[in-house]
Amino acid sequence: MMDRHFEVRRRLLGCVALAAFAPWAAAQSAYPTRPVKLVVPYPPGALTDLLARTIGDRLGAVLKQPVVIDNKPGAGTLVGAEFVAKQQPDGYTLLMATSTTLGISPALYQPSPIDPLKDFAPIAHVGSARNP
Predict the structure, then answer these.
(1) What pTM value is reported for the model?
(2) Taking the chain, what is the end-to-end CA distance rounded to the nearest angstrom?
């Protein structure tokens, strides 16, 4: 049972979307050929949004393509997550996920519109925060 919890936690922490750190991005010389969308399932001005905008600016410079921040709040972050889960898995629509998006909301809202372990591929862990 403990191994399963460790695996879920590891995947949840790794599901933050940053294409610059994806190993497959370097292997595909044609990527990206158009702007990349970074979906934030929180409203503008939230901490996750500010982090996504900071990362998006730097990521855009590395990728030499614009990174467009697309805020899609609602339903405990499931609106944005469901939107990303339904997109082509081509690296052009990324999700700035949190533990709420991938763990708490799918557990609270049943049936959940997403399966965090099947619908998303982890790319990078960009940070963590805890209460003082």
Answers:
(1) 0.76
(2) 29
